[in-house]
Amino acid sequence: MANYQNLLVAIDPNQDDQPALRRAVYIVQRNGGRIKAFLPIYDLSYEMTTLLSPEERNAMRKGVIGQRIAWIKQQAHYYLESGIDIEIKVVWHGRPYEAIIQEVITGKHDLLLKMAHQHSLLESMIFTPLDWHLLRKCPCPVWMVKDQVWPEKDSAVVAVNLSNEESYHTALNLKLVKETQDLANRIVKEPLIHLVSAYPTAPLNIAMELPDFDPNVYNQALRGQHLVAMKELRQKFYIDEQQTHVHEGLPEKVIPEICDELNTGVVVLGILGRTGLSAAFLGNTAEHVIDKLKCDLLAIKPDGFVCPISVDEE
Prior knowledge:
The chain is built from twelve helices and twelve strands. By secondary structure, it is an alpha/beta fold. The chain has two domains: about 1-145, Rossmann fold; about 150-314, Rossmann fold (3-Layer(aba) Sandwich). Belongs to the universal stress protein A family.
């Protein structure tokens, strides 16, 4: 159940406005819960000050941390004064993504929110290496927030995989729709949830090598398979047929286009969190979709996901 009550907001140190904190407050005001504003900082110049003693370097780090805490309090003063429960924490850590994920684990946070920067020309979101580390490795759902006005019609798009190529797709599809419904019913009066799936066209090399192969018949059969699977999925959650979309094409093209047409507030998708050779050889379909989105993103891991980050004992 997506009853997010313990939210962690990764503060952007390079700008005064914090859309991720604003989105967290939006959720808490409607669903309850508490927020922790978290910022890992590090400056190698403080570690390289050889003329200073370890005590003096430690005092300098504490001074910088204190300044950042005061800065975050200033950013959040309106929310704090209105009674929103926000804890502020700044730590000294050389790897921001590790610090954030370790805080998720030790603080038992059930949702991480972070701002994704917007490209000025394409209006799509730009993801930094920090973003990708969090999307792939964070054990809890990750909400990447775009700095935009929330649409008047609160709509969410759930990207589902109906190919049946892997057994885990069915379980993940059910988890995505259920968590989206749970969250939407808690924070939106009349939620509108759309399900989107894409299916590939017949490979050209097969059509060329097999004279009797009819790509039109193949495409129609594949579309029929996806329509049947979509009907089965939507009926389990009482979703109207008009709110389901099955389109031919690549997911990274189809899903962003549907989101644009519907003026979607957030797209929810599953991300397997592959890293290393697995990611290099198999790829991460979700990540190709993410690159082209123009709205908020909620990335959810499948059940059984194992976080590769361990918690520091210090």
